[in-house]
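A student in our group prepared the protein record below, which I am reviewing. Thanks in advance; the entry in question is below.
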Amino acid sequence: MTFDPNKVYGDVPQSFSHRVEYALRRCEKEETKPMKRKTIMAIIIAVLMLALTTTAVAAVLSRTTEFFAQFYGVDYRNKLESGTTYVGEQSTTFSNVTFTLNDIISTEFKSQLANEDGSGYHELTVPFFFTTGTISAAEGENLVLLAWDEYTVDDPAGYALYYGDMYPTAPEGVPTYAEIAKEKGAVIRKVECIPNGILDENGNHYMGCVGYTLIPQEDGTVFFSVEIQPEVAVPQQDSYQLSLCICTEDVDLSGNPIEGTRQSTDWIVTLTPEAAK
């Protein structure tokens, strides 16, 4: 079944439909592979400017809300701001790389899903889950991080290449990942964080669609986003279990994988609502 954003969100602009189709993919039926997103992220500039304007305002900003509102529009901002926020700044270190989640938000959407017998659609209200985060080298580690799949060792380091005008173009003379690694004697480590889904009480994933991005940052970290759309009824719970697959692999200065270095694990995060303010 092909995901139809118009069935989920009603009448939406064509550009929005294209973005949703680009962002979401079938994790149960399709190959697990990151999807490029051609837009996003002037939001980082916006967040920084707001932080400089007033620390009081910066304190209440949700990076997750800002990110997805920038990508999907003001209606998403309203939905996320009215959703449930879970405790953020959870992190884990794996393969000398630290993965840190910002705030996690869930909000309900009405989805119209195709009946299996082809007789039409049925409506289901389900919680969608959204989060963003950062991947960084663990303290003291001499690593050059490379966003998995989309980027090569010969790309200008720290610059997003697939988001159109939302990101600055790399200035002339920016060193590549390989050049930085050679100069520093560092290991080039490919990194990835992709969603498996929300787990039920038996540790199985609720069927649904997932989307994610991996976006290089000029400070050497990798920003990521995660969104999960269950396609079955998920019962209301005091907390949820989020499963993320994190993976690393070292490559040489030519970008060839180094045998025996690929590592992956499932990171299970407990989503507990923040205390009401």
Q: What stands out?
A: The longest strand covers residues 97-114.
